[in-house]
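#struct-pred
JK: can someone run the complex with heme C? inputs below
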Amino acid sequence: MTISNRVKILAAAGVSGLVLGLAGMGGALAAGPGPETCTKCHEDEVASYAQSVHGQKGNARGAADAGQCSSCHGDATEHVKARGKAPMKNPGKKTMAAGESNGTCTACHKSDSNRSHWEGSTHQQRDVTCSSCHSVHAAKDRVLAKITQPEVCYSCHKQQRAEVNRPSRHPVQEGKVSCSDCHNVHGSVGPKLVKRDSTVDTCYQCHAEKRGPFVHNHSPVSEDCGNCHNPHGSIGESMLKIRMPMLCHSCHTPHGGQVVQLAGQGQTTAQLSATSSGKSGINYTQGRSCLNCHTQIHGGNNPNATNPPAQFMFR
Ligand code: HEC
Ligand code: HEC
Ligand code: HEC
Ligand code: HEC
Ligand code: HEC
Ligand code: HEC
Ligand code: HEC
Ligand code: HEC
Ligand code: HEC
Ligand code: HEC
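RT: done, structure tokens with the ligand placed:
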């Protein structure tokens, strides 16, 4: 069958636009010429498209059954006629307004539950486009794989690259935890694009034991893990924002604010006892510092009402 015959047939069937794509059209309605026409000038893009989710046939919502290349690039009739000299819509180009670029994608992806908060999200408002992160034509879309994803983010988020490389951190470099384990970059109801409705709920996904319930809660824990931790990493241990005991001192003036003494500097035995009013200064600052005694810092389950007072984060 010649091209003109095919076009006549399709035109007779009520298909608008010049259809030049032949083999493998599978009866799809193409608003303009399809992949076969583009191959001789864009071999790579046609090949990557054919291998991608978008090029897969048989998905009722996919590009393959909705105009192929034209579903994202528009009608290429003039472009082909002018042998590439006429402009084409390219959602990856900086010159295209962010809203228009995103519109190309949301035409099909609007109703996805993962993107229901895209409108008004930080990235949408800051003119970050779908194609700033996604590579539709690459053999592998780097942002979808845990191990390669952070590099995509670091191109705009340099500070997080530094934080994730600190001594105490999540295993992000190893590909075990990724940015998208904690963030829904397409928008969320939580602060800072966290994946769940709040920071704590985001952390509980993997650290369920910190949720409790506890007999004695430590209120900053159930409020926001970020009160004490930098989830991206820290210089000190356990991803703590500030070292011990200064971390605790940022909210508490413990033990009557008494000046810490070193053991052996004139303290009585009573002062050295953990349950009496005075405590050995060495216990405050050495070893695990305040955690030498207040071990249950995320919440305690000691039912004891006295000696030592259970409410004070003791085991
Ligand atoms: C799902 C949407 C989508 C479909 C379908 C699609 N493209 Fe693209 N195309 C893009 C995006 C987005 C870019 C920008 C670069 C990127 O993100 O990979 C692009 C870029 C291009 C470019 C420019 C490459 C460059 O180096 O600047 C060409 C050429 C191209 N596409 C051709 C095609 C052809 C031919 C087809 C059909 C076989 C096709 N595209 C199908 C979305 C699409
Ligand atoms: C005869 C060669 C030829 C054919 C056939 C052709 N193109 Fe192109 N196309 C070009 C050239 C050359 C450019 C680069 C134009 C430029 O950089 O200004 C280009 C650029 C593009 C771009 C990028 C535009 C931009 O501004 O970044 C897209 C998208 C594109 N073509 C899509 C297609 C699609 C889809 C088809 C098939 C339906 C197709 N082209 C067929 C030669 C061709
Ligand atoms: C014609 C409809 C259509 C358009 C336009 C479209 N997509 Fe898709 N996209 C799909 C379908 C269908 C899937 C397969 C998954 C599904 O069924 O939900 C998909 C899958 C994806 C995936 C997941 C890929 C994977 O390997 O799991 C990404 C990422 C994606 N699209 C990004 C984009 C971006 C970015 C754009 C705009 C440049 C875009 N899409 C435009 C229909 C579309
Ligand atoms: C800031 C980077 C970024 C931007 C901007 C972005 N995405 Fe994504 N996208 C991701 C990451 C990371 C994943 C994988 C993890 C996930 O699902 O959250 C993903 C996954 C996807 C998937 C497949 C899995 C799923 O969630 O269904 C689709 C489809 C998709 N994005 C479409 C889009 C569309 C459409 C836009 C624009 C409206 C967009 N993305 C904007 C980073 C981004
Ligand atoms: C093209 C640039 C770009 C890329 C790529 C990008 N972002 Fe962003 N992101 C921004 C901008 C701009 C902001 C607004 C705040 C700012 O200036 O840092 C932002 C803000 C954020 C915020 C804070 C949201 C808030 O409400 O304050 C998070 C979290 C975030 N991005 C995560 C990611 C992750 C995860 C990735 C990779 C999957 C990513 N971003 C990729 C540009 C980008
Ligand atoms: C373990 C969970 C977790 C991981 C993994 C994670 N983040 Fe975050 N991120 C958070 C939380 C929680 C906040 C909010 C912190 C706050 O409120 O101070 C945040 C905040 C941000 C912000 C906003 C910072 C600001 O000060 O406004 C950006 C940008 C960001 N993250 C990017 C990333 C990138 C990029 C990655 C991957 C390299 C990543 N995050 C990995 C939990 C995480
Ligand atoms: C996707 C799962 C996941 C999520 C979500 C997650 N974490 Fe983690 N977290 C891990 C893994 C894995 C480790 C490393 C455990 C190990 O090395 O044994 C870890 C370790 C930690 C550590 C100990 C680090 C050290 O140096 O000992 C802290 C503190 C921590 N996470 C806090 C958080 C906070 C706060 C959040 C929420 C903002 C969070 N995590 C969300 C998986 C997760
Ligand atoms: C009041 C400060 C504070 C808050 C708030 C806090 N933590 Fe911690 N967290 C610590 C301290 C101190 C350590 C070190 C404990 C140790 O070495 O025994 C720690 C250690 C951890 C560890 C590693 C050791 C372990 O116990 O598994 C994880 C995981 C952790 N925190 C998760 C969380 C999560 C999740 C939240 C929020 C629900 C949270 N933390 C809130 C102070 C805090
Ligand atoms: C972000 C502020 C904050 C930080 C940091 C913090 N706490 Fe607390 N802590 C509180 C608040 C608020 C209470 C509840 C006080 C109340 O309800 O009377 C509390 C209660 C306690 C209690 C129970 C005593 C009481 O009066 O109920 C102990 C013990 C305690 N914290 C120890 C620590 C230790 C040890 C650290 C360091 C690892 C620490 N806290 C870090 C805010 C903080
Ligand atoms: C040697 C054990 C021990 C060490 C170390 C210790 N505490 Fe305590 N802490 C106690 C005991 C016992 C109580 C019960 C009330 C009391 O006897 O003062 C207590 C009570 C508290 C209280 C509640 C009463 C008050 O004074 O507000 C806070 C807050 C507190 N400690 C914080 C800290 C901080 C912060 C550090 C580290 C600088 C620390 N503790 C180190 C044993 C210790």
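RT: quick notes.
Confidence is low (pLDDT under 50) at residues 1-30, 259-266, 270-279.
The radius of gyration is 30 Å.
JK: thanks, will look after standup
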